[in-house]
Amino acid sequence: MSTAHNNAKKGDIAETILLPGDPLRAKFIADNYLKDVVQFNDVRNMFGYTGTYKGKKVSVMGTGMGIPSIAIYTYELIHFYGVKNLIRVGSCGAYQDDMNLYDLVIAMGASTDSNYANQFDLGGTYSATASYNLLEKAKKAADEKGIKTHVGNVLTSDTFYQNDPDSWKKWASMGVLAAEMETYALYANAAKAGVNALTILTVSDSLVKNEETSPEERQESFTNMMEIALELA
Ligand code: HPA
Fold it and tell me: What is the CB < 6 Å shell around ligand 1?
């Protein structure tokens, strides 16, 4: 069995998967951290791989950018391939002035400007949250490695380029730590299916300080985040 977006067969994908946005980062993780790697997907170049980390089976696959893209891939991973633990490893734009480039953010919750949760017809505002179990393990792994983390709410936005360049300041005033574009859908899909999800992010730019990293730095410098995520396998 395969899907319209994934040519893996049932059993090809581990119960735990790391999910970077960029498929080439998925390849980088497989090449640098996993042993006995087998590629399971190449549809749309959204590369996915399964291997082992410290003897445990783990997969890694790109999600693309934004809610619609991650929502499709994670729905299929959960419902067609039996994935139980989904860990997004991505980048974010910092909203608070005590945050520096390359700091790590663990998304305890995700707010959004998207209508993604309307499909569940809840009659209210759904608060998307991480799996506490994964969150606790990730925080502990970071503390043991001496890696500083910011734990809190992120904004999953449908827009990278905003019409109003100051619109982020209202979210920042609510204590939101950073912007990214996928976590709300990941957490909602996982919650609806009763599986576990967590997002770990590296600060790639700061809206407060107007700083950013280069694409090369982004590709190579996310070691801390990946090592924490792999401890969750
Ligand atoms: N906004 C949305 N997504 C992002 C950003 C941002 O500023 N930085 C990295 N991913």
Answer: 91-93, 157, 160, 179-181, 204-205
